[in-house]
Amino acid sequence: MATLTDDFIKVVPHANEFARAEGAGSIAIGSESAAFASDGRAIAIGDKAVANGDHSIAIGWMATSVTSTHTGTPASDAVTIGFHAGAYAPSAVALGSGSQASTPFTVSVGGDASIYGAFRRRIVYVADGTDVSDVATVGQLRRAKAELEEQLSALREDYSKLAILLQETAR
């Protein structure tokens, strides 16, 4: 078993299975890790980590950025970080242990029942959205709800006044 070490880097393999990398600029570090890309630049770091798609990245034990078995679409530009996390579509991002991203251009911080059972994570300390494509925070939604309730209350008051005025006019 080979060990690579210097003052700043130390790699100790877990097993006798070798890392494999194919494609210009591809990097695989870890026992049974694999980085494959036809155009190149796939990165797999961690035991059994697999990055299979141009410019894809998989970091963590059993992390995978790979072609979807359902669609056959390569996971190019996909990023996976965490134990047994997976990104299975182009430009998908899976963050955290067990997270699964299977739709293109999505970010996942949770997973379905296939790994640990369905679970969700919260994203905290997020600034209020300001653009039409930004996510709204709970604080923004609560303020919008309060403003809407205030406007509805004013409309109810106006409606009541109008109803009384119509009744008086009808007499």
Number of helices: 1
What's the average pLDDT?
A: 88
Largest sheet: 6 strands, parallel
List the domain count as a whole number.
2
- Helical content stands at 10-25%
User: How would you classify the helix and strand content by structural class?
Assistant: alpha/beta
Q: Gap between N and C termini, in Å? A: 101 Å
SSE sequence, one letter per element = EEEEEEEEEEEEEEH
CATH T-level topology of the largest domain: Alkaline Protease, subunit P, domain 1
Strand content: 15-25%
Widest beta sheet: strand line-up: 3-5-7-9-11-13
Point out poorly predicted stretches. Answer: none
CATH class of the largest domain: Mainly Beta
Q: What is the count of β-strands? A: 14
Radius of gyration: 26 Å
Assigned CATH architecture of the largest domain: 2 Solenoid
> Could you say which overall geometry the principal axes of the C-alpha atoms support?
elongated
InterPro entries: Adhesin_Head_dom, Serralysin-like_metalloprot_C
Domain Trimeric autotransporter adhesin YadA-like head: 19-33, 41-61, 90-113
Keywords: Coiled coil
Protein name: Trimeric autotransporter adhesin YadA-like head domain-containing protein
